[in-house]
Amino acid sequence: MIKSKIDIDKINQEIDKNIGVSFNNNKLLIEALVHPSFKHENPEFKTDNQRLEFLGDAVLNMVITDLLFDYYKNATEGILTQMRISLVKEEMLYKKAKSLGLDKLILLGTGEEKQGGRDKPSILCDLFEAFIGALYLDKGYNFVKEFIWRIFEEDIKNINLEVDWKNLLRSLLLKEGKEPQYKVVKEEGPEHNKTFYVELWIDGEKLAEGMGKNKREAEIMAAKEGLKKIKNDIS
Length: 235
Prior knowledge:
Blueprint: H1 2-5, H2 8-19, H3 26-33, H4 36-41, H5 50-71, H6 77-88, H7 90-99, H8 110-114, H9 121-139, H10 141-157, H11 162-174, E1 181-188, E2 195-202, E3 205-212, H12 215-230
Antiparallel strand pairs: 1-2, 2-3
Helix pairs in contact: 3-9, 5-6, 5-9, 5-10, 7-9, 9-10, 11-12
């Protein structure tokens, strides 16, 4: 019955071509693609992707946590939490779903299709999580971890949350009873387009320098440079 509605083989071929994944259980793949609006208009479909979205949300959070824990070995719990939030937020998952071409494969009801559902962040975010849930059930945790690392690697390596670098540096130093100090040493340029230069000092010694369009940005760059000197594996 499903075969008469949609071309499962063609969808699987598209997934294999665009994403490099071939499902063993086609029912899981289709379930991940069925939006509630499609199920509502096609009662022969007994399930939509909401249960898989629930599972995928948990799996994605676990895998991202695992990857961050391995990559940022000295990051505190608070910093890891902020990093994870930035990686699993709706905007990020929307972009991942688009980059994988899942927006072209989702099965939508006629009304949702007309309302632009294929490009709605909330729908594509749920779709991405449902896909991860289906992939987890079909391939297992290790496969999903490798898959998520492949598509999130650059994002994980290049996280640049402003608050993180200063907080991370401060957390590391507090363990040694030290406190970072930031000193603005120079300002250049006109009022509307200034450049600030900041030095990072620890225990009376200058550790690093940073520059930016405002004092905060310069402090962040100094903190990041300081972290590189203290811990080479955090960059």
